[in-house]
Amino acid sequence: MLQRFSAPAGTASKAGAGVLALLAVPLLAAPASAHHLMELFHQHQPTALAGLLSGLGHPLLGPDHLVFLLALGLVGLRQSGRWLLALLATGLGGSAVGLVLPGLPGAEVLVALSLAAVGLVLCERLPRWLLLPAFAAHGYVLSTAVIGWEASPVAFYLLGLLISQGSLLLVSLRLIRRWAERCSPARLRLCAGLLIGSGAAFAWTTLVP
After folding, report:
1. Would you list the domain boundaries of the chain?
2. For the segment 77-128, what is each residue's pLDDT rounded down to a tens digit?
3. What is the DSSP string of the chain?
């Protein structure tokens, strides 16, 4: 897949720099700060507004979730509308499972390794369909923030998640995918390596706090 991309050197360089910046900046955030908005709302009585704002903000505040969503555009997904619906559906399904069966061991590690999975898909070492269960793992982990909440705030939280993740996926599958198509193979390999390394790092910090 990497061999398909070609462009003038100046264009590819600018496009590759933009992609690398989008991937690298969220990784500068400390993992411990990823859930501070959720902790703020847990200090108060859960409401529909709290659920909606929490759902909107959670994918943006977690660097692993944010990088995963943005990086999906790098793998050259076609038929972006179908992928968008499939990813959102599997994510919602993962959240539903998380509400019914919370606390499954290894979920956070799977989320961290999903970044490495995107890098390996980009290198054509893994099939693209694995991105669907990877997205479900993200949905599962995102549900833990509202365990114990009443039905109405939880519903608004899931709505916020759909809006936030859908918007980020639209950016990824439209804008970042176009940038990736203009990147040189070397830049894409660098992006893949960055994703694999960051996934391994997140997994390590999850296993060894």
Report:
1. 2-207
2. 766 788 889 999 999 999 999 999 999 999 999 999 999 999 999 999 999 9
3. -GGG----HHHHHHHHHHHHHHHHHHHTS-GGGTTHHHHHHHTS---HHHHHHHHHHHHHH-HHHHHHHHHGGGGT-SSHHHHHHHHHHHHHHHHHHHHHS---TTHHHHHHHHHHHHHHHHTTSS-GGGHHHHHHHHHHHHHGGGTT--HHHHHHHHHHHHHHHHHHHHHIIIIIHHHHHHS-HHHHHHHHHHHHHHHHHHHHHHH--
